[in-house]
Amino acid sequence: MCIAILLSWFKDGRPVQRRWQFAPFGIAVSAGVLLTYPEILPGPLGLRLGWFALTLVYGSAWLAARVTAGRKPRPLLMLLPCVAVLLFSATIGADDAMAELRMMPRVLLFALFDGLAAREFMRMRQPQLQSATTLYWIFAVFCVFELLRTPFSLSLPAPFGPKETQVWSIALFNFLIVLQGLLLGVFLTALGREQLAAQHYRLASIDPLTGIGNRRALDDRIEALARSPRGEDCVAVALLDIDRFKAINDELGHGFGDIVIVGAAMVARETLGAGNVFRVGGEEFAAIIQARTPEAVMTRAEAVRIAFEARSHVSGSESRRCTISVGVAMMEPGDDHSARFTAADEALYLAKHLGRNRTVLATPGQRAAPPPIDLRAVAAERRASA
User: Fold this and answer.
1) Which string of b and e fits 55-64 if b means at least 16 CB within 10 Å?
2) Are strands 318-321 and 312-315 parallel, antiparallel or unpaired?
3) What integer pLDDT is reported at residue 97 of this predicted model?
4) Taking phi first (over 0 means left), then psi (-120 to 50 degrees means alpha), and beta for anything else, what does residue 365 get?
């Protein structure tokens, strides 16, 4: 595992994260040597340092979990209890009368570090990171095992306790150490790949100019919405389009137009939530609105329009206030989503036809304009003149 992680470290450009992931395996080499051949150091020093190194292995596994989860490592916080256990074994635990207590602090420390590592991976659990869930269960199971064997560390044969070593105890101890190390190495490697894939997916789902989701993210949001229970909430799709945007670009330049687009995204995100707003065109946005009633849905859509109208867009000496038109269509369970988007699109073009800077709701049985106006004809006319 040391060689595999080292090769991966060099291949990936020596990232800091991989250095921390290597630590438990690198320290485990010295721990294994000292525990197997304690006579290489005088007296009981080799055995004590071997156990100290093994506590560092568990502690560095916790630090590797923290770094993998995107959190800062805490090496001093890990080192202090390891040194305390080492001092205990060299002082109180060195007394023949206290030999039975020599192993208990080590086992409790193993359980503590396993539990802390399990907590880090528990925070990472999500559908895109299946290996994080597996690592959580690995560390959780070993934590419970260490806790359960703590009382027996007073009477078990070494290396589980203070009694005379047995063949089975050495074989089982080594098997468990190697098993946990192999599982950690395999699933840490898999988790790194999953994190990279998830990062690429996020980048592919984010509009680079505004930082909100793009059309791909919108499709994912719609699918997630279809799978999740709605309860009593009403759900609507809204299409938002900046009014007279071509004139803004022609008069003030595309740089100022980008400022207006970013401003619209910020207003919609602040009002409706970052995960509910998506850029689907040059100056056009889509939003998912959830509220208790259709009236509340329209209130939230209107809040976006009003907030954008009140916002000043500034670039150097230029300052401009702009407006936005909004078309809203209510969604029902089992609806054809493309049909709802078409309805919202027609409502948006109707809002443009009626004078812009307004919100229009397109729902079955409700007309947002006098009967002579044909929504599809208005939409077709608007597209033709664009």
Assistant:
1) bbbbbbbbbb
2) antiparallel
3) 56
4) left
User: Encoding tokens for residue 147?
Assistant: 């806790």
Q: Which of 146, 283, 284, 346 is catalytic?
A: 283
- Rounded-to-integer distance, Cα 340 and Cα 281, Å: 18
10-residue block means of pLDDT along the chain (386 residues)? Answer: 69 68 89 90 88 95 92 94 91 68 89 96 86 95 94 85 86 91 87 83 86 89 77 86 93 94 95 92 93 92 95 92 95 77 92 93 55 46 46
Q: 167-204 vs 2-11: helix axis angle to the nearest 10?
A: 20
283 is catalytic: yes
pLDDT at res. 236: 92
Ranges of H-type helices in the chain: 2-11, 16-36, 45-68, 75-90, 104-124, 130-149, 167-204, 215-227, 245-252, 254-272, 294-310, 337-353, 375-385
User: For tokens 């490592």, what's the residue?
Assistant: 73
Name the pairing type of β-strands 312-315 and 284-291: unpaired
CB 284 within 8 A of CB 239: yes
- Can the peptide bond before residue 159 be classed as cis, meaning omega within 30 degrees of 0? yes
Q: Which pLDDT score is estimated for 155?
A: 84
